[in-house]
Sequence to fold (419 residues):
Amino acid sequence: MAAGYLEILRARHAARLLAGTLTGRLPNATAAIAVVLFVRAEGGTYSLAGALAAVYGVGNAVGQPLLGRLVDLYGQPRVQLPAALVSALGMGVFAFSGTDPLPVAYLAMVVAGLFTPPLEGGLRALWPSVLRREEQVHTAYAMDAVAQEVMFTVGPLLLTLCASLWSARAALLILNVVGVLGALSVVLSPPSRAWRSAPREAHWLGALRSPGLLALLGAFLFVGIALGSITVAAVSYADDHGGDAVYGWLMAAVGLGALVGGTVYGARRWSGAPERRLRVLVALLAVCYLPLVLMPGAVAMTALAALAGVFLAPCIACAFIIVDRHAPRGTVTEAFSWLVTTFTVGASVGTGLAGPVVEWGGAVWGFALPGAAGAAALVVLLATGRVLAATGDGPVVAVSSENDPNRAVEPRFSSGDRA
Fold:
């Protein structure tokens, strides 16, 4: 298992790109927590903190596909680095102005969210140019999904550490400076500077003109709803079983399960169409959510939370492959960014739905919501199976070799991008 991942990391530029992308995404991974900590330190209310964090999230959801399209059109360095600087500037204005005047705070959140660089989609567009074999790219997608779980665990810890050592304002500023440095590391790398999107057909819908991609996004909206609803249901459960400490263990267990599942998934070579494999993974994801409604004691519930997370990272890794196969030529960064946006929006919707559900029926109904959302995602995949298979089982475009001095074409890559 380790040998497969080491082979990826030993590839030239791979470790730098992965580390730089994860570092560059730290401000985004910690934004909601950072805003809440800072607003509370300034004497603001939780309602205000939540509203500002929501504005940031909406801006981020809108900006990712738009910036992804610009990356496809103009290249990574000309978009990623300026966007990272503007986003960090927005957070800097917020850190120094605080919540007074309030319009400035909201405007700063809009700017910070809207200009968050699409490093996540950019990395996935780069993998085919860094790794020359298709199975290596698939392993890299799985490693990418696992690394996200690590980042979303380590990021909040670093944020709270900085806030406790210095202040919430200092933590906000430090992580955004680190984020800019991460983006700088990526865009100065030879693969990022050399990467060019394949020629694209001008169309206002961009990546969204692909029926297969739309079907995948529809399914992953419900996967996001499932994950978002768990966070609220877990709060209700923890209130009756030990408080905040139990909640922390439950969320850590979900992340640990995803980390283990993604690691095992990426270590194996899979045969068959990924569209069919995703249906199986989503079905298993939905089934593993169901035992949560049993709500046993804290220790057993933590184990069930870990089980609930096992198939999350494999689903995401498999979705990366499908995005790559269904994205229209020249739109791969935008397509990956749409997946990020859809998943984020789904998680927000899940959080919003779970609140009233928990108030009405208690934690047990809150935990029923992820299973129902997982089942809905499976229904979408089954209903659109023919649409997904139309492109996924059809001819696959080989990677262009225009910039390859050896003119070595690696068959079966479908991104249509070159480096």
Q: What stands out?
A: The radius of gyration is 21 Å.
